[in-house]
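Readers of this paper often ask what the protein records in our data store actually look like. Such a record has a labelled line for the sequence and another for the backbone structure tokens. The tokens are whole numbers drawn from a learned vocabulary of local backbone shapes. We quote a single record here, exactly as it is kept in our systems:
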Amino acid sequence: MATKIRLQRHGRKSYAFYSIVIADSRAPRDGKFTEKIGTYNPNTNPATVDLNFERALYWVNCGAQPTDTARNILSREGVYMMKHLQGGVKKGAFDEAAAQAKFEAWKKDKQNGLAQLVAKNEEAAKAEAKARLEAEKKVNEEIAKKVAEKKAAEAAAKAEAEAEATEEAPATEEAPAEA
């Protein structure tokens, strides 16, 4: 039986969620599978992967062939790194403790890189929000300036109208008094 490590699609339209499964290569994509070893959610940023590391390593060592996307996921999670290190142990290049230490160092470096990426994304989002706020403040100041000019013009027109009215009113009052 030729086994494959592949993704089984779940979720609604335009919002896919995948299970990482071990299946016979002849089985349909969303059909019968041997074992479920994890989940993959590409909708989050960064994508969320929940993987049973030991079972994935077991199946890779048994010869299960992953699809391209599954291979990328397994590689990112370190399954292929551990397989490589176990091969070095079998050949006698180093012992199991050294292999585990190398894997832990690789995993720590990977997590630090991911944390830096998340921090960079958050910083970019903050900078973008600040820039939008500054642009909005600038627009609001321009609008406030226009409104103030309009109110000043209206006040000047009103004062001018009142001045004309006061000039005309005494003239009309004086006229009947003189007559």
Observations:
- The chain has a mean pLDDT of 89.
- Residues 32 and 170 are 102 Å apart (CA to CA).
- The beta strands are 3-12, 15-24, 35-41, 48-51, 65-66.
